[in-house]
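Holo prediction. Input below; ligand is flavin-adenine dinucleotide.
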Amino acid sequence: MSLFNRLLVTGLPLVPKPLVGRVASRYVAGESLADAVRVVRSLNEQGAMATVDVLGEEVSEREKALAAVEEYLRVFEAIDRERLDSNVSIKLTLLGLKIDEGFCRDNVERIVETAKRFNNFVRIDMEDHTTTDATLRIFHDLFPRYGNVGVVLQAYMRRTLRDIGEMPPGSSARICKGIYVEPRAVAWKGYDTVRAAYVHALEKLIVNGIYPGIATHDEYLTCRAVGLIEKHGLKRDQYEFQMLLGVDEELRRILIAGGHRLRVYVPYGGDWYPYSIRRLRENPEVARHVLRATLSGK
Ligand SMILES: Cc1cc2nc3c(=O)[nH]c(=O)nc-3n(C[C@H](O)[C@H](O)[C@H](O)COP(=O)(O)OP(=O)(O)OC[C@H]3O[C@@H](n4cnc5c(N)ncnc54)[C@H](O)[C@@H]3O)c2cc1C
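Structure of the complex:
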């Protein structure tokens, strides 16, 4: 990333919110469930599966967490009614993890139970390192009882290989690099170091019989993943690639055309700001986008 882009990324919180919203709109389906349904339908038509995320995190009021649970129940109904190929992704701090772990676990259980009724699946996103233990506890509690819940592991976390060792065979893990700014004591640092950690983690998932959701837009890692899929003789239904809405649609098309299954993460809702800031921070062309929006004066 250029020095100018780096400066802009540091200054992103100073950029007016409406401007952030406009520049980041490609990463979010919209504010309503109808927006998410429209985007998922279009992705399905392009041969991609989806995972729907209700935006929101770090909730400190029980009512907000309970409202999020209700929203997820509406998502399952919509997926079923519209015959969409989509599961859901959830963030535990939206569902009350910072209020009380038991409260959060009950909320997640309601979502997983409902998913089961609809023959659907719930992916628990991984947030910053202060939530990793609780997230894995909730996953390990629910998986043996329901089966239709998976978790996310972050390649940059030094603990991840150990966490993979504790995953039940037949379960499912999305492997991603990790997006939160973590202290060096808990996370590998350095671009190539995290790539190496990703490859180690992905291979361990495969060898241990854990279904991998290979979440990356990094062409190098995609190439390494294709090599591992080949080396370990994985069939088409034994893994999937995953990408974020609004990122590298060309790579998405290439993977689908190559015969791989691919799922797109589709976030929607009113609470889009923190998610959008994280996406803009990763965008190598962020300066151009922000400048263009500023100059257009809208
Ligand atoms: C489906 C999915 C789910 C995820 N879930 C989690 C999670 O639960 N917890 C978590 O910590 N992280 C999650 N992440 C984020 C992940 O950890 C990385 O931060 C993110 O994917 C960027 O890493 P990368 O592997 O794509 O490599 P990078 O090196 O960051 O990106 C590779 C290339 O992709 C393109 N690119 C990447 N991001 C953008 C962007 N925002 N805008 C434009 N171009 C971009 C650029 O060309 C870049 O050079 C998820 C990612 C995906 C794809």
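The pocket of flavin-adenine dinucleotide is lined by residues 125-126, 152, 154, 174, 176-180, 215-218, 221, 242-244, 247-248, 265, 279, 282-284 (CB under 6 Å). That is the main takeaway for now.
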